[in-house]
Write a structure and sequence with these properties.
- The chain contains 6 helices and 9 strands.
- It has a single domain, classed as Alpha-Beta Complex (Spore Coat Polysaccharide Biosynthesis Protein SpsA, Chain A).
- The chain is an alpha/beta fold and 178 residues long.
- The protein has a 7-stranded mixed sheet, sandwiched between helices. A two-stranded antiparallel ribbon has the order 2-3.
- It is globular, with a radius of gyration of 15 Å.
Length: 178
């Protein structure tokens, strides 16, 4: 299993590079990377703030993938992650660079409950990333339909409660102490 953190977005609602924003002396994306790293090899997909974010990534990040189509939306980054996992012939743990409240134990819970079926985190009345997509499902996805995302094409899945997954960062005011 490989872990991929999506970090190519424009942070338009945040007003500056969200993932390189420092909280307690640590860039936001590094909270996500540090929580995921003990469990697996971690790669990052970058786009809009690539140079800025690349310069603050920890040395254990195994690969940095550039998404040149990031302006078309998050689906293009998901497609990059799927293509990367397909090339590695690995299951994919997909997460977002602003899910700073999802901790090491949350990722362990997700991984421990993965049973060869797509597994989403569930929270409140919804579900989403972080999620694990098995390689056999990835193999069958050629191209994500624009605006459909994974939820639009993966119909068979399980969920596991990960309450911290409901707390992402869209605005500076969303940041609370970690």
């Amino acid at each position: 299993m490989i872990g991929v953190v999506l970090g190519a977005g424009m942070s338009s609602r945040f007003g500056q590079s969200k993932l390189s924003y420092s909280l307690n002396g640590k860039p936001l994306i590094n909270y996500v990377l540090d929580s995921l790293n003990p469990h697996m090899e971690v790669s990052v997909i970058l786009g809009h703030y690539e140079c800025e974010i690349r310069s603050i990534l920890p040395g254990y990040v195994s690969e940095i993938i550039t998404n040149n189509n990031y302006k078309k939306g998050i689906g293009t980054s998901v497609q990059c992650a799927l293509n990367f996992a397909k090339s590695k012939k690995e299951d994919l743990l997909l997460t977002l660079g602003d899910l700073i409240y999802v901790n090491c134990l949350d990722y362990k819970t997700l991984i421990d409950n993965f049973k060869r079926e797509t597994l989403y985190s569930s929270f409140e009345d919804s579900y989403g990333p972080p999620c694990i997509i098995p390689f056999q499902v990835i193999e069958d996805i050629d191209v994500l339909p624009e605006k459909a995302g994974l939820k639009g094409i993966i119909k068979k899945f399980e969920t596991i409660p990960i309450e911290n997954a409901k707390r992402d960062i869209d605005f500076l005011s969303n940041i609370h102490m970690v």
